[in-house]
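Same chain as my last thread, 415 residues:
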Amino acid sequence: MASIRSHTFLQLPCSPSPCRCSPPLRRAVWTLRGAAAAFGVGCAFVLPVIGFGIATTSVLAFAQAAPAARQIGTVKEIVPGRLTIATDAGLKISVNVADGAKVLQIAPGSTDLKAAQSITLGDIEVGDRVLVSGHQDAPDALTASRVIRMKSSDIAQKHEAEQEDWQKRGTGGLVSAVDAPAGNISLTARGQKITVETTPATIYRRYAAGSVKYEDAKPGTLAEIQPGDQLRVRGAKSEDGGSIKAEEVVSGSFKNLAGTIVSVDATAGTLTLKDLATKKTYSIAVTPGSNVRALPPEVAARFAARARVGQAAAATPSAAAASSAPPAAGQHAGAGSAGMDLSQLLNRLPQASLSQLHPGDALMVVASQAQTGSISLTAVTLLSGVEPILAATPKGEASMTLSPWNFGGGEGGGM
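reply #2:
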């Protein structure tokens, strides 16, 4: 104690009310007070006045050196005491799970930690989703004091339930108008005009530029939706089907093309296509997420026959009356579209690859467009074997446009 009395000390306050320190220093004081209590020093934690400026700097550095951080991602690798996760932004983060860290499990979609279940790090599996909180050690490294897990199997069940709900209560089509003040979107779906009624509680999602996956869709707004966009909506439909109260809206800007291949580079994963309708040539990237299918000749012949019948009907006086009637199940809007919902058939067709395609082959393509007016596209859906169909519609009308929603389902679009 003699050595202690030989120095002059500054006592830090036991409560923040009389403290006139700056907020960072005040936080540092309370951090150190906690450390003092842990070491049994008590409330009157002291610093030598000699060199107080150096001590203050050290205190602030201690409080600010390791900023709080959180990351959400999918577990890719597990070793004792450490996880590697891939974030939604595509970053790989090494997560060191500190001794004593809380490891919890919640159901997908839950936001109440009161319902969380305590688990161990050993319960976490590759493929699980985790929210980790702690201190950022480096741009790609984090020390976690808390890990919240969502089991991959629980996520799959929730995803399946959502798919079923989208199929039951969802619809989709082309945006014809947006009334932002009223919160309404006019949608043309299978020849029928539908009013999409949004509310402040409506969830909006927008496809990321160049992405073809629903999982990559980002939070969006009503203001982003424009005429010509393709849109899917889930909610309660009116009895006559003329309106739907939107709970969730997913939209994107897509190009529907029908034409012939100019060139193919299977190694680079690209092809160039000349569109019949616009005569423009587009460069199309085919990614692992692209849905590439081949239409069998006998199926293409049936669709082509229907297209010819539809075009003949469109030339008659009764065509206008027929086009104003709601289409039957499985029909697309437009002349020659009777029964021609290729999007419903698509996922039952044989898969194909870019290496099977050649210059001169006919394709129907739905592609995402990073920028309006760009000739560089990313294929969402690509269908080959459509020569008979395009021959039956030589003007290149998109009477059988494919749905861009390649995440499953038929009518209603599985999410």
